[in-house]
Design goal:
Chain lengths: 217, 537
């Protein structure tokens, strides 16, 4: 096993990440405005931006799901306990001692166990919670005449808001963790260039050198 | 400051908003689709006069308009009577008690100035006599026509109507045309005893309004006459205060159809906002539960004419040297002084540019009539209570004027009373100021029981607001309702209103979660900074 600089984030994946970041930022700002936490823009503008960003994000997600399954990239997000303790111990203790991060990216495992679990929870719990409630919210006019519709709308709005709070907390932690380790820049650049340090097996190295020479440096 | 600076050109840009078209053309008021009359009434020999009485003019009118008398005598302007088809309640000015001057019944000598007929002063009036119809009050356009009380009243009151120039009936007869705003306004702007006193959204400011006051009637806009919306069919008008269509589900209907409704939707349809933006799509959703008037009439009693919102009969009857008097205590927007006290009526409170009350309304008013027995310990007696809810398909959220009054009632029986206000005898309140005698007479005249013991009770009446529609750029913004504090819909129940409604626990927990995350990050990074640096990979 040896460390190489390998392209682990494809162009689509990087586009997905940064557009998603932008849209989530817009959704958080406009959403908390609609909720009444600030008056940075008119309600009308906030509704327009919020709905537009939400629909764009849903379209992006549709493409990303297709991408995840056609490229088999979904396997990066399978949860595992292997190495979890080491990562948890690092953030709780080792980081203060200046220890190195225990996890090394592998070609088919580019996230550490904590990351993989966090992203998986985001993908299968928080995001669905917010987009399903969001769509129900948006299409209220289609079911407003069902019995107790306003009560249901209230419950839906609360799930939507709760998910928004959790996503906001995730965003803070996600950005903070980028500052750990070497430098903020070292963490961000892979998502810009696509290349990061990866521990390759000799077979993986040989394969990449032969079939995808542009993906290994 | 920056915002204030930026908003100046914006306001100017808005004034030039192109819809409805700015049209400086002072053409005649638009009454409906039929334009270009086929007859010039000034040329009719029958109308050259001279006429001794208004009834003589009416006879001339009926000479050609042979069926109009029969049609007219069915309408509410003539009958002052309306039986609610749903509740069977006997309504109409002829019977109801209101919380302004309280009752026209028994006081027709004064109140029936606004009856579209000649000479109704008591029960002897003949409602089947076509020649008693007053055609001129609605159709003459000289502006010199007026009516005086049908009976002289107490000397203290009749002086108000002295010294008016004689009416040139022939000139009025030759001037007849479709009714102008001023014709309808003769009565409808002055209901309740003065300019805009009663409705709040119908005042003399609508005679020649700018489009900023009313986008439909504006002389620099569409210049609609009242009948452009209150379409007439055989002298029956569309639109009713007694039976409101709070939610029109028909829309415009086929061309030429639906002459019997005066809803916004009957012209603007059921999806009035052009679907060219996401926000407009959302606005069209609102039609289901919010009346157009709620957003498009941001305030009523605009245009410089105030409306009365409180009336206190308890203070009436004070005299100076045995004479009634009045006090001016309010200067309204157009500079006119208004009476805040009159011996004959008590104290008033005025208001202008009033933010309405909002409530679910199914269009059905439940009147407290002279027969209704109520619990005098109730907080308020609603003259016209109404209902409505989110669940009811007929209901929408409407704006209302709330009128509050302390008025006399029969303490012994728990009912409202008819008060004899106008008359020449010594029981007429106006001139004699003896409330008990006035009530005793007012009730006895109609064979009603009176315990002999009157008190004052707080009453409310509710006036759905529907005129003074502002141009669209002045309509409410979303946030006027969708905000946590000061929402216009603060008291409207049965809905989840985004922006207004919150689960406070969720907000507290969410804020703690996010705040705690930030605090955790700060602590974590501080510990990192101040930890001894070991091996760095």
């Amino acid at each position: 096993m040896a460390i190489f600089r390998v392209k682990i984030f494809s162009l689509f994946e990087r586009f997905w990440h940064w557009l998603q970041m932008l849209l989530i930022l817009v959704l958080l700002i406009t959403g908390f405005g609609l909720h009444g936490f600030h008056n940075l823009m008119s309600f009308r503008t906030a509704v327009t931006l919020h709905t537009g960003a939400a629909l764009t994000l849903l379209l992006l997600w549709a493409f990303s799901v297709f991408w995840l399954f056609t490229t088999r990239s979904w396997r990066h997000f399978i949860p595992t306990w292997q190495g979890m303790w080491g990562v948890l111990r690092f953030y709780a203790y080792g980081i203060f001692k200046g220890e190195r991060h225990p996890y090394r990216k592998a070609y088919w495992r580019k996230h550490n166990p904590l990351q993989a679990l966090a992203y998986l929870m985001l993908k299968i719990v928080l995001f669905p919670a917010i987009w399903i409630t969001g769509l129900l919210y948006l299409f209220y006019f289609a079911w407003r005449n069902l019995p107790d519709a306003p009560l249901w709308l209230g419950a839906i709005a609360q799930v939507h808001t709760a998910a928004a709070f959790l996503i906001l907390a995730f965003v803070f932690i996600h950005v903070y963790i980028l500052t750990t380790g070497h430098s903020f820049r070292d963490h961000v650049m892979p998502m810009v260039t696509g290349f990061d340090k990866v521990d390759l097996s000799p077979e993986e190295e040989a394969y990449l050198r032969k079939d995808q020479p542009e993906d290994i440096r | 400051m920056l915002a204030a600076f930026l908003s100046v050109p914006q306001v100017q840009a808005r004034d030039g908003w192109p819809t409805p078209p700015i049209n400086p053309d002072r053409r005649a008021q638009l009454s409906g689709p039929l334009q270009g009359g086929t007859a010039d009434h000034a040329k009719f020999p029958e109308l050259q006069g001279p006429f001794a009485t208004g009834s003589d003019v009416t006879k001339a009118c009926l000479g050609c308009h042979t069926e109009t008398g029969k049609h007219f005598m069915k309408n509410i302007h003539w009958t002052w009577s309306y039986v609610n088809p749903d509740t069977g309640q006997q309504l109409g000015k002829r019977y109801l008690v209101n919380n302004f001057c309280t009752n026209s019944r028994g006081n027709e000598g004064m109140c029936a100035q606004c009856h579209a007929g000649y000479g109704w002063k008591d029960e002897s009036f003949d409602f089947s006599d076509e020649t008693k119809i007053d055609c001129l009050v609605c159709h003459e356009t000289t502006g010199n026509y007026y009516k005086t009380p049908n009976s002289p009243g107490n000397a203290a009151c009749s002086v108000m109507f002295a010294d008016r120039p004689p009416i040139d009936l022939a000139a009025s007869a030759k001037s007849v045309d479709l009714p102008q705003r001023e014709n309808c306004g003769t009565c409808h702007f002055y209901g309740g005893g003065g300019d805009n006193v009663k409705h709040g959204d119908l005042s003399s400011a609508l005679k020649e309004p700018p489009r900023t006051l009313d986008v439909h009637m504006g002389v620099d806009g569409l210049n609609f006459a009242c009948t452009a919306c209150h379409v007439t069919n055989r002298h029956i008008w569309a639109g009713s205060r007694y039976h409101v269509i709070s939610k029109d589900t028909e829309g415009t209907g086929q061309p030429g159809m639906r002459p019997d409704v005066a809803t916004c939707e009957s012209c603007h349809g059921l999806a009035p906002h052009p679907v060219n933006s996401l926000a407009n799509f959302k606005l069209n959703d609102h039609i289901q539960s919010v009346a157009c008037q709620a957003c498009h009439i941001p305030e009523f009693a605009r245009g410089g004419v105030a409306t009365i919102v409180n009336w206190d009969w308890r203070t009436s009857g004070k005299t100076r040297d045995g004479e009634g008097y009045h006090e001016e205590g309010y200067i309204q927007g157009n500079g006119e002084h208004r009476y805040t006290y009159k011996s004959i009526k008590g104290d008033f409170t005025y208001d202008e540019n009033v933010i309405p009350e909002y409530a679910w309304f199914d269009g059905q008013m439940r009147y407290t009539t002279i027969d209704t027995e109520f619990d005098p310990n109730a907080e308020f007696i609603e003259i016209n209570g109404f209902s409505g809810s989110r669940e009811d398909r007929e209901s929408r959220i409407w704006p209302f004027k709330r009128m509050h009054t302390w008025q006399p009632y029969d303490k012994g029986r728990g009912t409202l009373v008819y008060t004899n206000l106008w008359g020449e005898d010594e029981t007429a309140y106006w001139g004699n100021y003896d409330m008990n005698a006035a009530i005793a007479k007012g009730m006895a005249d109609f064979g009603l029981d009176y315990s002999g013991d009157f008190g004052f009770i707080e009453t409310l009446s509710w006036w759905p607001i529907t005129h003074m529609v502002a141009p669209k750029e002045s309509a409410l913004a979303c946030r006027d309702c969708h905000q946590p504090k000061n929402s216009r819909m603060a008291s409207v129940e049965g809905i989840y209103l985004p922006g207004r409604d919150h689960n406070h626990w969720l907000d507290i927990i969410g804020t703690l979660l996010v705040g705690g995350t930030l605090a955790g990050i700060i602590i974590h990074s501080l510990v990192r900074i101040f930890s001894p640096k070991g091996e760095q990979e």
